[in-house]
Amino acid sequence: MSQIPTLPARPTGLLAAxxxxxxxxxxxxxxxxxxxxxxxxxxxxxxxxxxTMLALPLTAALLLHATPTQMGLLTTMExxxxxxxxxxxxxxxxxxxxxxxxxxxxxxxGLAVASVxxxxxxxxxxxxxxxxxAFVLGSVYTTAGxxxxxxxxQVVERDRLVExxxxxxxxxxxxxxxxxxxxxxxxxxxxxPLALLxxxxxxxxxxxxxxxxxxxxxxxxxTGRFVDxxxxxxxxxxxxxxxxxxxxxxxxxxxxxxxxxxxxxxxATRELHxxxxxxxxxxxxxGLGTITASLxxxxxxxxxxxxxxxxxxxxxxxxxxxxxxxxxxxxxxxLVFVCTLVLFGLGAxxxxxxxxxxxxxxxxxxxxxxxxxxxxxxxxLPAGPGALIGGWLGEHxxxxxxxxxxxxxxxxxxxxxxxxxxxxxxxxxxVLPESRTDRPSAALRAQCDAERETEWIxx
Length: 459
Fold this sequence. Notes:
It is globular and about 55 Å long. The termini are far apart. The protein is mainly α. It is 81% helix and 0% strand. It is built from 19 helices and no strands.
């Protein structure tokens, strides 16, 4: 009787080794079911956001032949709601549950972007309609965006906020690697307006995932008038030296960033002569930068300290914009454009995982809504003027001049942050005393979440 041959054990060993390497460490945040669903929603909506980020300005630039000033106005219309509504929305958020606001925001953005291809199909698309869509997007980001940041603090302990923001950034970075290339192909095949329909579908999927999440939310009873609570949130921020320094530094960075955003697509299409698909592929460089910073951001922040890591982010963005402004168009145009996006991606992630974590770490939970909206209001006040300055320089001087303005200003910002003891001196993430006692342990919170999830499914 012949013996049945057996398979060698080596492949099984390789598979086991690969599986062990891919297995999450015991304390990894992604092992938490609630956080994992939140992370998946961020991944999906970020992928859709890449479509809108390219398709909306390309619709204005290529289909409607917008001028640099009109592109600057398009950016400004998205920023304006932050200036108008951030402060009152913070008071309102402290009075309501944040998760439903977050979910409603995902759906509202989906409807807004879907209106663009419908208007194009009906023959009613105009730059003024795009202004209206940008204003709606900004209005939703003002409220639902703040709510999303607060929901994270209801899922993750404060001493792990940098890690959580880094993982969320990793999700959005993964979308930024694959999203722009997919967006470029969709825009090439379908046209920029129709590509926005894919974003609408992804946002609906994101909202469906969020709908089942159960969070631990502690809201203080409403005892004061709306105006008094608004003032208390503003007073809290303005009386805190670190929050003021963070608002000032990040506000100047937002001015630089929005000066570039208004002209970046025009510079790529009209000066560098890149096609829609090439631009989409180039934007994968942004994803490579952000995914690298997301993977190592927590480690770099712990090694350097949150303040110096934030300063490093300012410097990387300044270097990227300086490179783009200094190198003349030519055979290396695509490579320079990609390198600029890589440096910007690295810098932006280093800035925001530390900026958001620091401001949340020093704020008591009852003030999180007002603090978040006040800080967003303060940092975006310079963003509108930045977009207008970039548009004006692009139209009346040169597109390159707008990028050079951002590079020089960001370089000065980096020097200021490095010499500021308030920012440079933050070597560890602050921890509020009450955050150690008022919040349940991770194990107890996971057990309570599981019990509530089971009860919700049964009902």
